[in-house]
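Researcher: Re-running this chain for the archive, since the previous output was lost when a drive failed. Same request as before.
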Amino acid sequence: MKRQQLEHLLRASGTILGETQFIVIGSQSILGKYPEAPDDLLMSMEADFIPKNMGLKRSH
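Model: Regenerated structure tokens:
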């Protein structure tokens, strides 16, 4: 997975969940620091992430 593909997943998830910030965990987190990572590090087609503020929203 390339950074562009990860960004697409985050945007789509943000639209569905009403979130703008996510924490990327697992192998795709390398793309945050190294957007042009070597192909050997881009083999996985899965991405694990959670909303940054998950569980912090309160309903009134």
